[in-house]
Fold each of these.
Amino acid sequence: MSTEAHGDSHFLQHHYDTPAQQFNAAKLGMWLFLAQELLFFGGLFVAYGVFRSWYPQAWVVGSHLLDYRMGALNTAVLLLSSFTAVMAVRSAQTGNQKATGNFLLATIALAGVFMVVKYFEYAHKFEVGFLPGSHFAPHGVGLAEIVEAARESGVNGVPYHLRTFFGLYFVMTGVHGLHVLIGMFVMGWMWNRNRKGEFSTRYSTPVEMTALYWHLVDIIWIFLFPLLYLID
Amino acid sequence: MTTEPLASHSPSSPDDGEVHHHVASARRHVIVLLALLGFTALTVGAYTINLGEWNLVAAVVISTLKAALVVWFFMELKDDVAFNRLVFLGAVIFIGLFMAYTMNDTRHRNRVDAYNGARVDPRSGEFAGGTAAGIVAQGGELGPLPVIAAESDGEAAHE
Amino acid sequence: MNQFSQLPPQMSTFAPDVDWMYLFLFWLSVASFVAIVAVMVYFVFKYRRRPGVEAVPTGHGNTALELAWTFLPLIVLAFLFHEGFRVYVQESVPPENTVDIHVTGKQWSWEFTHSNGITETNEAKIPVHTPVRLIMSSSDVLHSFFVPDFRIKRDVVPGMYTTLWFEATALSTPERPVRVFCAEYCGALQGSTNGNDRNTNHSTMMADLHIIPQEEYATFLREGGGPPAECADAVDVNVCWGQYIYAHNGCSACHEINGEAGGHGPNWMGVFGEEIALEGGGSVTADDAYIKRSILDPSADVVSGFGNIMPPYRLRDQEIDAVIAFMRSLNAQ
Amino acid sequence: MTVEAEAEAAIPADPHHIPEGADYITHEHGLKSWLTTVDHKRIGVMYLISILLAFFAGGVFALILRTELLTPGKTIMEADTYNEMFTLHGAIMVFLFIIPSIPAALGNFFLPIMIGAKDVAFPKLNLASLYIYWIGAIFTLIAIVAGHIDTGWTFYTPYSMRGDNSAVWMTIGVFILGFSSILTGLNFIATVHKMRSPGMHWRRLPLFIWGIYATAVIQVLATPVLAITLLLLATEKIVGIGIFDPALGGDPVLFQHFFWFYSHPAVYIMILPGMAIVSEVIACFSRRKVFGYMFIAMSSVALALLGFLVWGHHMFVSGQSEYATMVFSALTFLVAIPSGVKIFNWLATLYQGSISLESPMLYSLAFIALFTIGGLTGLFLGTLSTDIHLHDTYFVVAHFHYVMVGGTVFGFLSGLHYWWPKITGRLYDERWARVAFVLVFIGFNVTFFSQFILGSRGMPRRYYSYLDQFQPLHMTSSGGAYIIGVGFVVMAIMFAKSLKSGAKAGRNPWGSAGYEWPHPHNFAEQPVFTRGPYDYHLATERELFTGTDEEWDAHMAKKGEA
């Protein structure tokens, strides 16, 4: 119990002895949280694997109905945001308050770009009736797109389970999108705390934990992109 | 570690109770970012040249490499304690288990008995009860390609 | 032995193997349990706390002992797995040339369709000493086809086929048919008031298997089924047969025949030939054609005031005629 | 104002500081001080009250069920009401009582104390977990009030796709409860890793902590799969995404894989903490270090990990592939090994001990006997040929009640009696505690042993009505349930009297060498552990003294005179 450490370390909570202990506990806690996040998304990937192996034609045609250029753009955007997030952490660790704030803002902005692109993708699918499961009712341009996609992927007909593909597409990207939104919110909060000068070279834990979370969101997308958009 | 020169170690003693970060250089982060973007381009490239069966393998392998880069460098598992690595690895292993065992079932449901688990009764060609009426109506997994003539109606109805 | 273990009668070729395993496990368990509890009670008594007697410190344990009781049980467990799996494989792989019967589970009845196209509901004729394969599916929720006397069970799943096979080893009597239970929970009608009757909920979703001689089954396949034996002396065979179907095929779960209100379906008394209002407007005359349609495709014209809850019933034309005759006879009362 | 005083004022008051002469219950007053506390002991007590309420509700449903089953056909209610009752009994007992019971209530209270920490690693998160638990419970209540939830606690599709939306409320409730469980587990793992005092190395960790730690691993790794399962289920029900519903091309058997990937490991979330308590209690009442300490600790970890590999044994007759069935059956038998290791080591601990039979020990010895039955009947269900006959019958019902009630609940009661003086500062009437024990023990065996016989005779589970031939056994079972009910009423009165007028407990009424006993609350100063938690031959006379502080002073004075 080092009371002198408490004296000038307002960030140190009372049940910890040292800043290092507090940091290590926080980091372990965060990794455990990320582990549960992985398992959470893992369930979706298992469902994906099962139905992809059962209905390969639906998956190929469904994939051709997604615009891989938009997906690739979003991948690049998220990778870039991961970079700005890691730079925010670096700035916080080296005590550069201004750079920390700017990098956090850049990350939020890139996340925003991701969501805007996502919005356009969703809007189009809603428009032409590529809806999940029981609501799947393509019409107009959508029908033409299906004919085109079926021809491209060499499938002779409309796979019944396209609706399942879009069911999973919306759940997987939707749950991921929700995580992006939560990430934007948390980073905004961090930006505010940074503005108030709560972080220093001795204490930048919250920024680091937020960045860890953000990288995980990025990793999920790294897998979602080829699995959904790039199937031949 | 070959990447050691890129990182600068904090010189102070490790047991003074303070947090000692391995602050990595900005240069390393840029290199990792470029590698990630490169891999993305590679994935898209592999998609445009058709690899057939190997497409899935290529996609998953490249994605895993990308994820590994993020985890190892951006999330700094490289410099983290062994237990945190174990936590991450454990989560991945358990997802693998979940997937392996579930698909062990879903891919083998009709091995012992041709009828067992078959979605269509092979003798009568009849769909099992309780399936989507739509599948039955369409006479199988594949429905006919839609008639494009309906397009103009659909558009009109929508605008 | 069997009365001690409380197992049901052995009516299939699998039963002796399963029971042998059951009894082996039973005595293994009894022996293990008695040994463990005896040691525990003995220690508790022998080393009970007494003044002046201290516990002996544990020391560092005994690795050899630990390894022994970690790995020795594996031998027994491997044997259990092997024996259980051996019988399971037999149960999973039907022989060639089985007699096939299609089974459909639905809330809350079992339909058996024989190879001659005849469908029996909640009862089925089964030839003795013959491998029979059931090809099963469900038209609504999960059910499970469970025959304790045969020691077999398999879920009946909508959207896919599952199979079971067995060979019955003895004839059944009319008083004690081989009973089929539903072992996978499948619910009850909300607000149900007659939960004590057959085929109104999960716990009453039963069927009777009548194990008959092979020649009798062959005759049945060739010539088809007629009215039940109990209707042979009836004044009007068709009315009697219709009443039999009403009682045995699950109609009575929802349809009353006393002319009073209540029940989940329209009351049958006095309905035949009447003009009835339909759900969603319009009306129809309850004639032969309408009754037939509402048995085969109940969702087509639902009577006003009732939900679209009736599953389709696969009855043959003669059976439908019998049901209509029965309904007509109710008007006369 | 002096500089020192200014510095003092700048530091927020230490929420963990308890002034001399007060205890964690009395040092602050008022509802607000409880609802905003971050003290793990208070949070543990609030969990304890919450789970006991849930246990009461679940128990009432159980008695209603057993009353209905006194006769075939209608006894007191209709079939659909019965279906709702067993759904609520299962869901409340599993999600609101048994999963949070030992870890969240007793674990919260004792884990930090036993490792010499001031609190868990994340106290605010700990309080948040409690609130999340309450919110989940509220959603569950809404489901009960809003309508008709009759799917069984397993929510199997496509049955759960039908009916009204109360199933969605229930799903959301359980989804939220899952996060409470995850966050608690996460908190405990971080606490065990990062908050141990000097000298508390892994080979000294009390076995209770090992059990809670292994449980926490499952909570973190398995519960998120339940969360995604329920999310998919709710989405399927509201939007119809077509994953589990065969009417849309989905697969109902896939739902069972998803569900049991969580719910089988969850069985170990339930039983491991019970085993952990038994290890503590047996050591204390035998005055002896647990035999094969490391083997017991590692068997907990082994159970936690093996628990993930065997979920398919819930699906032997579901229509899954024979290949999967074979693998799952083989792996299932492996679970018997660590369970057996624990039982053998507990017996070996009794050998050459100094055994006394107070109520906590009675519950723990009963645990060993009942868990043995539960485990051995598990062999019937792991063996494929017998499982085909026994699956989905009362045999299964009896088996899991022997494990969950004979195991976990008896373990929980053992711990509750054992630590009651520590939590409340008061003693209870041992004679009445034993009367309650005898009633619960006898009632339990009457209730559930008859169900083994019912099951082997072919009585399926979840049956509202049954054939006449089963009636004598059903009546016996119901009679046993009433005896259990009486036993719990006696116990409740006994504990209430203890709270109201029980004698003041000493620091260590059982004379245990465990770390949690010799100090009034948490350790006043950070301790340095120099002996193991079961080293009776190394503990000081003061540490093992069973009386109050005043009695100790008198004792020392007498010694001085002599």
Note: The radius of gyration of chain B is 26 Å.
Amino acid sequence: MGSYIPSTPEEQKEMLSAAGFDSFNGLFSQIPESVRLSRLLDLPQGLSELEVRRKMTAIASENKVFPTVFRGAGAYRHYIPAAVTRITANETFLTAYTPYQAEISQGILQSIFEYQTMICELTGMEVSNASVYDGANAAAEAAAMCRDRGRTTVYVSAASHPDTIRTIRTYAFGADTQVCLVPEKDGATDASALKDLLEQDKTAACFFLQQPNYFGTIEDAAALGEIAHAAGAKFIMGCNPISLAVLKTPAECGADVAVGEGQPFGMPLGFGGPYLGFMACKKAMMRRLPGRIVGQTSDDAGNRAFVLTLQAREQHIRREKALSNICSNEALCALTASVYLSTMGPDGLRAAAEQCYSKAHYAAKKIGAVKGFELKNQTEFFHEFVTACPNVQKTLELLERHGILGGLPLPDGGLLWCVTECNFKEEIDRLAELLEEAEQE
Amino acid sequence: MGSYIPSTPEEQKEMLSAAGFDSFNGLFSQIPESVRLSRLLDLPQGLSELEVRRKMTAIASENKVFPTVFRGAGAYRHYIPAAVTRITANETFLTAYTPYQAEISQGILQSIFEYQTMICELTGMEVSNASVYDGANAAAEAAAMCRDRGRTTVYVSAASHPDTIRTIRTYAFGADTQVCLVPEKDGATDASALKDLLEQDKTAACFFLQQPNYFGTIEDAAALGEIAHAAGAKFIMGCNPISLAVLKTPAECGADVAVGEGQPFGMPLGFGGPYLGFMACKKAMMRRLPGRIVGQTSDDAGNRAFVLTLQAREQHIRREKALSNICSNEALCALTASVYLSTMGPDGLRAAAEQCYSKAHYAAKKIGAVKGFELKNQTEFFHEFVTACPNVQKTLELLERHGILGGLPLPDGGLLWCVTECNFKEEIDRLAELLEEAEQE
Amino acid sequence: MNLIFEESRAGRGCTILPACDVPETALPQQFARKAPLRLPQLSENDLSRHYSALAKRSFGVNDGFYPLGSCTMKYNPKINEEMAALPGFTEIHPLQPAHTAQGCLKVLHLAEKFLCEITGMDEMVFQPAAGAHGEYTGLLLIKAWHHSRGDQKRTKIIVPDSAHGTNPASAAMAGYTIVNIPSGPDGCVDLEALKKAVGDDTAGLMLTNPNTLGLFDKNILQITQIVHEAGGLCFYDGANLNAVVGVARPGDMGFDVIHLNLHKTFSTPHGGGGPGGAAVGCKSSLAPFLPVPRVAEHDGKFYLDDNRPQSIGSVKSFYGNFLVIVRALTYLLTLGKEGVPQVAENAVLNANYLMALLKKRYQVAYDVPCMHEFVLSLQDLKDSCGVTAMDVAKSMQDLEMHPPTMYFPLIVHEALMIEPTETESKETLDRAAEALLELYEKALANPEAMHRAPERRVIGRPDEVEAARHPVVKYEYDS
Amino acid sequence: MNLIFEESRAGRGCTILPACDVPETALPQQFARKAPLRLPQLSENDLSRHYSALAKRSFGVNDGFYPLGSCTMKYNPKINEEMAALPGFTEIHPLQPAHTAQGCLKVLHLAEKFLCEITGMDEMVFQPAAGAHGEYTGLLLIKAWHHSRGDQKRTKIIVPDSAHGTNPASAAMAGYTIVNIPSGPDGCVDLEALKKAVGDDTAGLMLTNPNTLGLFDKNILQITQIVHEAGGLCFYDGANLNAVVGVARPGDMGFDVIHLNLHKTFSTPHGGGGPGGAAVGCKSSLAPFLPVPRVAEHDGKFYLDDNRPQSIGSVKSFYGNFLVIVRALTYLLTLGKEGVPQVAENAVLNANYLMALLKKRYQVAYDVPCMHEFVLSLQDLKDSCGVTAMDVAKSMQDLEMHPPTMYFPLIVHEALMIEPTETESKETLDRAAEALLELYEKALANPEAMHRAPERRVIGRPDEVEAARHPVVKYEYDS
């Protein structure tokens, strides 16, 4: 049995006695007998480290690692530089708590300040928080930021990630407010439907648009944002972070709040987490932004100093009047994103985005040329796109046998493909060959 | 192409000019044109990190990792605790140089002092150095320590690791001295042959004995040592470090110098290196010990301080009069050994040794019971032993197909098996079954 | 030290990606970003040094004693990190077909099974990413349960005044009105106040037990009974589970819903503020409302079940902070049935031992045996020499210890909340006590020096008022 | 801080191994250890903190500028570490059959091919574990070559007085007598002295080029010719290859044998003193003598060739510090044909740039353009105010820089030997120059303060005389 307790039974005895107890039993005398567990837990016997490693490694090997991945849909395989993995493994970064004690935590505070700056630079926004749980949660929190008196209804593009829509709905259930889906048409958000819906509704708090959307389409965000603003609603954009290197910024599209799933910035797929929700907004909404924010100030001697600031927004000060309950966030993931962005630099990040774009377009051409795998939409896209598929199960099984995780099956029978800078040309060519094969079978 | 050069071409220009040059060419004006390379090297194009990772990973995958290993013969698969890998990955430990500057290097100096202490505790010796290259090199260096005036011939048990014998021979070629092999008989060093040889030779400097020897046998070291001493020769023991937890210490066997291959203390197999040569001796020989030695002293304020000491032995002071040329050693491997020993503790190290012993004896019984695989020697052994084998190639191929690295083929047709705490009973039982199968085919 | 932007020089960088190996396609101009892409440009050497320097200006559990009350800063085992880094976990896409992700699903299944046994719950999910997220999820279960019974009038959640701020905040986010009830003189729930507070508008009670004073509420069964009898449900805030893990189970105390902080009780690291990992468990009556997707088993194979019509939906994408759950499972497999209760035993022992040492000088807020943590009140010290809890905390920074939680819970004046955790040795506690007792003497002898602390950190006390008044929340580029 | 033994408490520890799963067999008493097995006993938390504290009391390249002359403390890329940690390399037994270790053999093959091209050698091995080990191996090749020609009378190796101490020490170990030749007034080999030194007893010459003064010997072709004409061979000490890599090749300078330090020029980390990694290369005439086993290729498959009857044998077990070679190969693949010469260019540029800045105040030992490093002489400063090279070096420690190499080479008085390497940025050099120039002024203004340095480290200057006079080389247990 493993244990991380330093004290030996003799020391425990000595300490018990020094604290005025004669047994462990006495220590727990506050707990009524009726709720004391009178048996050992029904858990397995504890294991030595060697056995634990063996067991966990065996469990991990029950998963299949696909050498080639053409699936995204909210979780993306991008290249993770060695510097990112190694730097973020630093034990101090790993084991510190939230930097409440500023003097002893300047390093972590500065790293968050740097992260906030990078998120602002990418989105064009003026204020970023220190992170929330993930992209879907960031969208839900952003919607909450935009609620104001009578304006409580959240409009969400139906071309958003299903998990994001579902999360926004769940949060609306909590807040006793309404969510209204704005229909998607031919792979893009239906602008005229949005206009019609908003015109009839004075309770509209905001409109959430995913860019590029779930189907990969680059939306005409500025135009959609204008429709929202014209109706008195705020405009929230949920952005793929890699695409921010090349696409119009949320600020350029007129967004009030920019959020997104930061996983592509150096976090592994990890079966869905931990990921990173980033959130940034215009200065006007700063005091409605949830979560930690680090600010710059100085100490008595005039040294630059960083602190958690604007804490009056937060639950530990404001309790039930806080705009959000968030306490722990995804700080180490935010650090990961900072290290990733600093390692890639502007040229590297732009190259990643451009390669995603070029490779996805190359792949779309190759796949789309296979009979039965025609592109479903004629829209402009970034690094994801939808094709038809004559036989989804057969196709994906064939690809799996060749170590390829194919596109995600959609309810309508199509496949949602994703291509990143990690997919080499030879992989794309091979994919197209295999699809030909699947089609001919 | 990857590069780790920070300066941009513009900065380089500026710096060239500040240093009084107008081109890189000018920088190299000291180098005669006739030896300047007038072409690019015939190397591949440099690669980005992504490509390098891909290429090196592909090369690594051309190796076969055996899930089960029953081969030792100088390189052993023991369990490496997570703490060892993680702690020694600390960047400061990794990237520092030899701690010449004591004040800024107290941590590394202290870690070496602690390592020296642990090696002394394990061997029973009084002084340890900070490490040499590996076990074979330690043996050769120990032999050099023992040379004294007319006494220059090194006696080496033929039951030592072939690489150790070969290395001692090579060093003797350097020193223009002789090496004499002491024959092995039935798996152990032939004591009477040793006696005969030494009695006739007044040039005997030392006798080197491996414990347990190459064939796994626990030698009667004290008796052999006495023979050496009686002839006026020094007695060097080359010890398996795990076995030191349970076997008589070199000090208890009367050795003057104890050396060994420290790889089992937390270093991976790594296709042969980096490993760790440990060396310890009696105080009387301290000033003949090669390599770094850390000593304790104090600073002006009376603080405990650690320094590289007894440097008058070393090449950078003594130049051609130094006893050894060693400069870089295996410091990070010595740190690895310290962390390993501290993580295992006395109970853990003893358990590792006892399990090696018990499991090897269990395996010897199981294997030895298979027809054709009888044990070759009747000697006491630690965690290695030799069996016969009816068809070496067929047997090893069968095992390989089942993910098992079998015993090492010996020139005489036997197999040298090794069993450690990492081999589970089920693996041993499966091995015996497969050998039955091999035999029946 | 410099900000990374101040270290940046145009044209520097690392070479991470190869050239594009397919024909390049240009993004149409109308979609293209106009703003310059300003990100740091550093060589890898300078990058590496920058983050080394930041780490050195921070303090983690590896750097020393970290008795931050309520945060359970226990040791984070290294084997957990190694297991969470296995490519067989890190490289798995969350939307891989289930038959290719059986290992991941087994991790979730085993973690659920073990933690249900530990807490006395029937089902458990891991989708919430942190403690407060778990509270919120639990409250939505309560809300969904009442609604499913056609009971929409229960709009109030009762929260004791000693609760963490997240409790009322989570309840408010779930659409509830908060009824704060004062603690009794013993620091526990005032039964009479509770009885007065409950009614047919009571949706439920949120309770941390042991509470933030480190006290186990001896009336816990009456408390949950009162709430149940009023038609409410009881939510257990697992923040302090470390005190009772393996010794008492929330399920046996009458709780209907719970959340756990994997990064407290189950040893996963805090990461400078996250990622945490939460588990939300409930009795079977509430299980239909749990977030989707759920891990299910059929014929020995695991799959993800999305078909839960009564579910509250999702509170984030996918299945939670999976790699955090890998760490927690590794820890549970290590400890096993005997190891788990020893955690609680030694956590409570360490707290009582340290409290006994400090009581020689300091005033304990509630002078009774504590559970895993205890609260000092420095009001007397402040009155006598002007030295505050803040001053003592800041002085501790100079002694290579992380300060305790300050000024919480709110009901104790000049509070210092100390939680040593079970992974600290007797010597560490002895040294900490000695240091704190010396600080007490120093406070009396030289209060001015205490106001100046810390003096050996990279900055002195920062001007927080200025930070909030004139927020500077990002680096401003020159141009 | 405490020694780990002082932190140890009987009965503590980590739980690493399971119980034995086979019947236990007891070791016969006559073989059993009598001495108690005293090793540290700590919880994993305390263990982890101990080593964190040790790391914080040390200084690596990640901690700041490290201009330690002659040691080439360049940045150690993180991708190298990741590749050396791949289980496909770390888990391979050195005695696996060759068909199961093709990847490892390919690493050795590629590294040999690339490094032969870089140095102009015909064959190369990696068995030696460090630079001095490589020197020794190279000298044995020279010895074996002479012996193979029946020439036993060549017993002398010529070494310039500016050489590293390892050169004469290695030659002595190889059984040679050392002939030291003084440097000329230009710091280079004095051709006349060399001519006088060679003869029919000359086995060879060992030369570092550029030498330890950072000067490239412009007469290099004459030097190697003089030795060759006398019947000797020329050994190139690769310690300073970083200055000329991709720009000039030892093979083209007339050298017959070389060694390389992978941990200098090829970016593998120094590990606090090792493991290093050495390569020994030679012209084909010497190749039959190289250590065994050698990597060979047949039908596209690699194998290990032990059948080299003229080989000097082995200088250690197996094939060298393999995982170090993995790092070096990763580096070479990253840099490629264009990247390699840029290393030399920028290393030499950085040295000349820094030298130019320092020349404003400091005296350069040889005031000519340098290669990758240069040597200051502080004799004038010492004469004027009593501040020594040691004082300046120790003062640098307080400025978060590692000091340069002190008092070497021996032919320069009060020497400080500065090697910035190519991976430092202009700002780092500017800051270092500024700091050193300020120290110069401080030395003149307040020499006493310089004698007291360092003042901001965990200890002041230790008493080295006492350490050597009364050696305490291990912890003494009480009992």
Note: The first strand of chain A starts at residue 68 and ends at 69.
